[in-house]
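Escalation from tier 1.

The customer reports that the assembly of two entities below gives different structure tokens on two consecutive runs. Tier 1 could not reproduce it. I'm attaching the input and our single run for tier 2 to review.
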Amino acid sequence: MGKNSPVISNNIRRLRFFASEMTQQELADRTGVTRQTIMAIENGKYFPSLELAFRMAYVFKVALNEIFIYNAEDDPVIRKTNPAKTNEK
Amino acid sequence: MGHQEKQSIVSIIGSVLIIGFYTLYVYKNQVAGDLEILNDFRFWGKSFLWLIPIGIGVQIVIHILFAIGNRIVTREDMPEISDERDKLIELKSIRISHWIFVFGFMLSMGSLALGMKPYVMFITLLSSGFLASLVSEVAKIIYYRKGV
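Tier 1 run:
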């Protein structure tokens, strides 16, 4: 899993919009990181720690999987270790 | 361009200026006219010991000046926190710089093993330290731009 990975995508931009157009700076301040980090996460250039991900979920008041979406079909590890299951889909 | 990338560029400029002016100063005041001093271990010991505090001092001054200049031009404060992404990038770039320095260290020892003069070893050591710090900053810029 690397940069701009299709395996994990996120809804942060959408969630910020529905949270009264929360700015990146505001989200950064509320989660204790810099605006650049929020921007990198939104663009898929950085995957946050579990702690930061949970903090974001707390701020948006949603479940973690509403912020980050895991696409198992695109995950090369899952494809390799579970070929039958991924081929079914 | 983010603050961290700007800081890395300032660090690169600072490193080049420090090593450039320091080697020029040492060459003009001590080496020129007396090349034998290059084989004097005391000369190398003193040069290395002076370079470290001078380098740190000048880098601090350059970063303070940059912070003031940046504040005046952009009206933005430098980020007060160093978050998890900054720390990860710092760790990754330090790892790269360590490998480069270790490679330089091996080269410098190799020069001694091959019977070259001691100054070749010291110059290789100094160059690898300089190169390691440069590559570390360049790696930071790349990680900030392309992602970790």
